């Protein structure tokens, strides 16, 4: 379909007709913008303090991970230049207790560690949150050793263009990520960070290094310590997130008060029906007093046992209790928030000869969204991605771009989302705000 609307990278004025906005929402390509276009998007980004526009934020999922290997300084830098408000470092610990940005503490999929013969003997098998993994683990490397490795694309079959950057970037520390956010905050614009503590129960209580010694690192305590040391404690510029419950409660009740700070906490949700928060699994197995650990959450959820799944924490009473006691927001998986069904046969929606679009929206919205908003919680779903394999059709059978998906989420009331292509999220916000402006005229 052809339209006379200017494409985003060529547009000179911030406003556009509503018809163009709607067309962009429905038909914007899910392909990535070129690097030059991404840079021009940064030039257009309007300053804001705190991050976001009109209460709406764009969160760069592991940086601009659709364009660069994830969790690298270059991925974060590009995300900022594309207009992201927050950059997201997933945090794990090194042998010497330094927080670094990796999606997992097992690093064979995201670094070139396998090509380093000096580290061959550190390949081992560990059980992380009940799942056996074989590879190399950050807790078995000092920071100096980890810095000799180079990042690589985690999903090369889906993002082959990113492989040209393999071997170019090191593993960043949390301090380096904060320093980048500080440097890039200028001309009235303030960049925030959105760190996630990865496997906090494992690092603090269950995990062992390759020599058999307990790791014994509190990711929450290290995070608070680093933020304070770096003087990066503005609650408008930091969200802390976790899939576990106990470490967020500990942050709220103990760690942050002891440090004299108060930052917004976001409770992440894995699959509502298929997953149990690992801290609950661990505490049940070790006979912990759940009421002492979780307080009134146990009662609000109707009790907690081995059969408890994330879905037990999506009810209106639970969400209200979370808001009153520790959480400022929730981060559900978009597939739970907006359920999809599988198509009988995949569709080639982008015409590249590969039928990769395999889902269709049902038109349903999980009631958790309305209950969370009613409780005053921020709602930041994850993860939006532009590649066809991650997209779906509308209930009416129209292929939906990632821009249209993001506009839909904004329209449902979410205040932000995690996205691998931040420029697409920024465009979606512009489209959504323009549609609203046109409606108000």
Describe the structure.
This protein has helices at residues 18-27, 35-44, 73-81, 143-146, 174-184, 200-206, 219-229, 246-259, 278-285, 290-294, 297-300, 316-325, 334-337, 368-375, 402-412, 422-440, and strands at residues 57-60, 86-87, 90-93, 99-101, 124-128, 131-135, 192-193, 196-197, 240-242, 265-268, 329-331, 340-347, 357-361, 378-379, 392-393, 416-419. With 441 residues, it is an alpha/beta fold. The chain has a single domain (18-92, 171-440), classed as TIM Barrel (Alpha-Beta Barrel). A 4-stranded parallel beta sheet has the order 7-2-1-16, with helices on one face. A 4-stranded parallel beta sheet has the order 9-10-11-14, with helices on one face. The protein has a 3-stranded mixed beta sheet with strand order 4-3-8, covered by helices on one side. The radius of gyration is 22 Å and the shape is globular. Mean pLDDT is 91; it is low at 1-48.
Mean pLDDT over the full residue set:
91
End-to-end Cα distance, whole Å, is: 28 Å
Number of domains: 1
Query: Which radius of gyration do the C-alpha atoms yield?
Result: 22 Å
Task: Tell me the strand order in the biggest sheet.
Answer: 7-2-1-16
Number of helices: 16
Q: Which topology does CATH recognise?
A: TIM Barrel
Beta strand %:
5-15%
Family: Belongs to the glycerophosphoryl diester phosphodiesterase family.
Pfam families: GDPD
Signal peptide: 1-34
Catalytic activity: a sn-glycero-3-phosphodiester + H2O = an alcohol + sn-glycerol 3-phosphate + H(+)
């Amino acid at each position: 379909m052809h339209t006379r609307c200017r494409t985003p990278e060529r547009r000179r004025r911030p406003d556009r007709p509503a018809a163009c906005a709607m067309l962009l929402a429905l038909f914007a390509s899910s392909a990535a913008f070129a690097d030059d276009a991404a840079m021009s998007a940064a030039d257009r980004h309007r300053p804001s303090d705190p991050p976001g526009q009109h209460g709406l934020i764009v969160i760069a999922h592991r940086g601009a991970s659709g364009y660069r290997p994830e969790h690298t300084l270059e991925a974060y830098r590009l995300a900022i230049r594309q207009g992201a408000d927050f950059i997201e470092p997933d945090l794990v610990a090194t042998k010497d207790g330094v927080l670094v940005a990796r999606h997992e503490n097992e690093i064979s999929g995201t670094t070139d560690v396998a090509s380093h013969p000096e580290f061959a003997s550190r390949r081992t098998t560990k059980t992380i949150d009940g799942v056996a993994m074989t590879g190399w683990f950050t807790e078995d490397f000092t920071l100096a050793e980890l810095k000799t490795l180079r990042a690589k694309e985690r999903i090369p079959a889906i993002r082959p263009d990113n492989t040209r950057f393999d071997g170019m970037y090191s593993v960043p520390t949390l301090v380096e990520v904060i320093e980048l956010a500080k440097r890039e905050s200028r001309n009235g614009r303030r960049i925030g960070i959105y760190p996630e503590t990865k496997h906090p129960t494992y690092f603090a209580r269950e995990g062992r290094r390759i020599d058999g010694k307990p790791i014994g690192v509190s990711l929450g305590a290290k995070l608070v310590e680093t933020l304070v040391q770096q003087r990066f404690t503005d609650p408008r510029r930091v969200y802390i997130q976790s899939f576990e419950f106990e470490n967020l409660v500990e942050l709220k009740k103990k760690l942050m008060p002891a440090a004299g700070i108060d930052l917004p906490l976001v409770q992440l949700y894995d699959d509502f029906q298929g997953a149990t928060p690992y801290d609950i699994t661990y505490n049940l197995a070790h006979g912990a007093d759940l009421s002492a650990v979780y307080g009134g959450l146990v009662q609000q959820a109707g009790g907690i046992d081995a059969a408890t799944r994330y879905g037990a924490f999506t009810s209106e009473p639970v969400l209200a209790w979370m808001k009153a006691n520790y959480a400022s927001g929730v981060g559900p998986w978009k597939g739970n928030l907006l359920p999809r069904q599988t198509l009988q046969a995949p569709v080639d929606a982008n015409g590249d000869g590969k039928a990769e679009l395999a889902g269709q929206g049902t038109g349903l919205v999980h009631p958790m969204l309305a209950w969370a908003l009613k409780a005053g919680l921020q709602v930041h779903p994850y993860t939006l991605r532009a590649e066809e394999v991650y997209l779906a059709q509308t209930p009416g059978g129209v292929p939906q771009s990632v821009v249209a998906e993001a506009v839909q989420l904004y329209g449902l009331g979410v205040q932000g989302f995690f996205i691998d292509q931040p420029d697409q999220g920024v465009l979606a916000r512009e489209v959504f705000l323009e549609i609203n402006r046109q409606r108000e005229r």
